[in-house]
Amino acid sequence: MSALFFCLQIFKNSFYFLIISLVLLSVSCGGYKNVEKVPVRLTPLTSAEKDKLISEVSRFAQVKTVRGKVDVKFEDNSFAESGISEKYRSANGQVIVEAPAKINLKIQIPVVGSDLVQMTSDGEKFRVAVICCVEEKYKKFVFGTNDKDYTKLREKAKKAMGGGDQTRAISVFASLRPQHFTDALLMRPIQTGDGYIYTQSEIYADEPGTTQKKSPIARVIRGYYLLDELKKIGEGDYRITRRFWFDRVGGIRLAKQQVFDDNGVLETDIAYGVEEKFTDTGQFSLPVQVQITRPQERYSVKLTYQVPGDVIIDKPYDDAVFLLENKWQLPEVDLDKQADQANLLNQ
């Protein structure tokens, strides 16, 4: 007796005989029809001209200083080739940033409250102190130049540290540079000189959807405007320096900023969360969450303002705030000196 006939005999007196018979005739008793889910296209889409997009960037760039308490979460993607991503617990932090490139960031151990890392940049030089709760050999006071490339030194240090959980965590902090946060938390203004042009385009991205209790959406199609900043590098030749992504669904919202290096390689990818009112007066509307991804260094940092209403904006600060001193008497590491020595050895 065939499987199909056997199933029909079982269910012939059932209330569902007709329905089941139709199903069985099409897919057999042991199979199920595979219904493919397609991404949902989000609507409505808001239209905007290039001037509107530029004005949104300029609105962000009006903020010159920010001080607030943040939650800081790190993700180390150093082992992405193996499908491994190391995520670390959120830590409390306090950040002070001042345009164009000054920052003071403190990161504390969860619960304990002791400082784990402090870092500053005065716009040209950075200083990073790894202070607490690691092996003595990892406690360092590291300093160097913002614009210098230490890739070879970093890879050499990672190999020397091995692959334990603790050393992986330290490798994240060793890769951090205070100035990486500045472009994310304080927007550089639109360039008005003759050497820059801005172009607008649109794009549709297939993204993970939001999951609701009654109606989970696996994938969505979201519409964006792109605003590209191009810098002139020769006669009739330009290279991209920044790209801004504007979410068009239900309005215009700056969702992402991408920063490119002199070779057009993606240097920093910055994602912006939803906006809320900042300061005790609610005068400023800014993203509560900012995620900074450095693909070359293979790490990501997510900063979330704890209480937007308590954030202080546009207060001036003394230069000393952005100059970290080695008050802990930590062993000092001069990255510029090490890089110069490495280059001499390779010549």
Summarize the topology.
Elements: H1 3-11, H2 17-27, E1 40-41, H3 50-61, E2 65-76, E3 86-87, E4 91-98, E5 102-108, E6 115-122, E7 125-130, E8 140-145, H4 151-161, H5 165-175, H6 182-185, E9 196-208, E10 219-234, E11 237-247, E12 253-260, E13 266-272, E14 275-278, E15 284-287, E16 289-294, E17 299-305, E18 312-313, E19 332-334, H7 335-346
Parallel strand pairs: 1-10, 8-19
Antiparallel strand pairs: 2-3, 2-4, 2-17, 2-18, 4-5, 5-6, 6-7, 7-8, 9-10, 10-11, 11-12, 12-13, 13-16, 14-15, 16-17
Helix pairs in contact: 1-2, 4-5
DSSP E strands, number: 19
Portion of residues in beta strands equals 35-45%
Low-confidence parts lasting 5 or more residues at pLDDT below 50? 1-29, 79-85
Mean pLDDT figure? 81
- The H/E string reads HHEHEEEEEEEHHHEEEEEEEEEEEH
Q: Major β-sheet, in short?
A: 17 strands, mixed
Radius of gyration: 26 Å
What is the first-to-last residue Cα distance? 82 Å
Give the class from helix and strand content and strand pairing.
Answer: alpha+beta
* Residues in helix, %: 10-25%
Instruction: Figure out the total of helices.
Output: 7
Q: Which shape, going by the Cα principal axes?
A: globular
